[in-house]
Known about the structure:
Number of domains: 1
Number of strands: 6
Shape: globular
Strand content: 25-35%
CATH architecture: 2-Layer Sandwich
Number of helices: 5
Amino acid sequence: xxxxxxxxxxRASRQGALGRGQRGxxxxxDHGRSSPRESKVSQQVESTRAGHRSRPGEALILVDVAGxxxxxxxxxxxxxxxxxxxxxxxxxxxxxxxHLREAHWHGFTRAMSQPEVKDMRADMPVLCADxxxxxxxxxxxxLSDGLNQAxxxxxxxxxxxxxxxxxxx
Length: 169
């Protein structure tokens, strides 16, 4: 799929979603500069993106194998305070409190080297744009292709509540 095709698909899904009073994904970042493996994650999400609509208090973030943000929806902007234009193409370090970055990257690297489908729900500390660290219930999934090669990860966050599990604790 070309960049122009992806942009047309994005516009069409936004119009359809907005026409039903729902929010669609806000932004994508590729512009033909990604590697074939990074493009796989974009293709996988493009094929399923139309089915995901953020609800109030919910955020969806997609990162590639290097931990760079490739998708950032309206809910992520609302929950965390960062606009899509600020974060697309950036490593997720801006979301991770400094004292947890080493542990995060250790786990992320392990997940990308050995992607497995695990259903991990946890109370995730997030460094918001206003400088506060807030806890959100998050679900993290490593994404892999048909050959079990990592293509990235998706995180879905929900505001409010707790599952009682601190992944860094």
